[in-house]
Amino acid sequence: MAILEAPYLQLITDILEKGQQKGDRTGTGTKSLFGYQMRFDLSQGFPLLTTKKVAFGLVKSELLWFLRGDTNIRFLLQHKNHIWDEWAFKKWVSSNEYTGPDMTDFGRKSLIDTAFADEYNKQKKIFCERILTDDDFCEKYGDLGDVYGAQWRHWKTRDGQVIDQIQNVIDGIKNTPDSRRLIVSAWNPEDVPNSALPPCHTLFQFYVVDGKLSCQLYQRSADVFLGVPFNIASYALLTHLIAHETGLQVGEFVHTLGDAHIYNNHFEQVKKQLTRTPKNSPKLWLNPEKKSIFDFEMSDIKVENYDPAPAIKAPVAV
Fold it and tell me: Any binding-site annotation on 39?
């Protein structure tokens, strides 16, 4: 196996050295570069970072959640995945039914006020427990609307039709592998004004040549320290899964970034990561008995020989 994370380490180095200081929606501030591309040869290993531990279980459960067409966080919570909690929690504490302590601007305030952070964590724990145990509450406050699962699996047209983009692209790879239309889009201009978080991964395209499947993702907004390591692993896994179903080998994952940024409160973490020496990338194992990507469960997907440095924590900007 080879060391595959060099393009990512170069990205964070380039942002620190050449990035432009910019304001942002969250009020945190970033250093940013526009229009950046990384390439990962998936035949040489699986591009899971080794200079800090990336929780592959979270990558798996989130991708399987997308592929199910699910938009409710209950599935994620059942698999101890909390990476989408804040957006559902915001929906709850902004509602007329919420009667607890004021949670206005909880993302920022929880970082600077210890007492508030304790109360926030208490309220979010109560919220998550209700999502898991109260069906009515879960249906009302656990659903995130037209996020990736809906866009990928049941895109709704104006005339009431439903498009399964993932199934369509799998059929296209099998039947017309030279097509230049092997595309899945998540960006719907009609939905953007009302979305809690308009899709960051706006479009991805597949390419077949010499029996290998490659994928290119265009990501409009990229949280380089926290989000991008997950994004790399997620789309590399998606490429493997679709190659598995279509009888192809894996080629490249090409990651094209629009606004690639490091938040101002992530600089020290990034510098710490850059002091570490990368190791050989792990290998991905998929259960050969599963034929359809929609049949995969958590236990059907594993990484082997993964020996990362410890995780590095950083706050999420909401």
Answer: no
Report the pLDDT value the prediction gives residue 292, as an integer from 0 to 100: 96
- 210 appears as a binding residue in the annotation: no
For residues 131 and 36, membership in a common domain is answered with: no
Answer whether residue 192 shows pLDDT above 80.
Answer: no
Q: Rounded mean pLDDT of the chain?
A: 94
Tell whether 93 and 175 lie within a shared domain: no
- Distance of alpha carbon 195 from its chain centroid, rounded? 17
Q: Binding site annotation covers 231?
A: yes
Domain assignment present for residue 313? The answer is no
Are residues 125 and 118 in contact, defined by beta-carbon separation less than 8 angstroms?
no
* 193 and 265 inside one domain: yes
**Residue 309 tokens, joined:** 């440095």
Distance CA 162, CA 282 (A): 38
Please identify every residue annotated as catalytic.
200
Check whether residue 235 and residue 275 sit in a common domain: yes
Mention every residue, 6+ apart, whose C-beta is less than 8 A from residue 55.
Answer: 311
Q: 74 labelled as ligand-binding?
A: no
3-state secondary structure of 245: helix
pLDDT of residue 38: 98
In Å, how far from its chain's centre is CA 208?
Answer: 24
Task: Please name every residue paired with 201 in a beta bridge, in sequence order, or none if there are none.
Answer: 219
The answer to whether 281 and 5 are in contact (CB under 8 A) is yes
Closest C-alpha among 21, 17, 54 to residue 306: 54
Specify whether 48 is located in the same domain as 12. yes
Task: Check residue 63 and give its pLDDT.
Answer: 98
Residue-number span of the structural domain to which 134 is assigned: 85-143
Task: Answer with the one of 128, 143, 158 that is the final residue of a domain.
Answer: 143
Segment holding 40, helix H or strand E: strand 30-41
Residue found by looking up tokens 């208490």 in the block: 122
> Within this chain, do residues 135 and 151 fall inside the same structural domain, yes or no?
no
263 is in an annotated binding site: yes
- Give the chain's domain count: 2
Please say which residue of 127, 143, 159 terminates a domain.
143
Residues in contact with 111: Cβ distance below 8 Å, sequence separation at least 6, in sequence order: 117, 265, 315
Is 105 marked as a binding-site residue? no
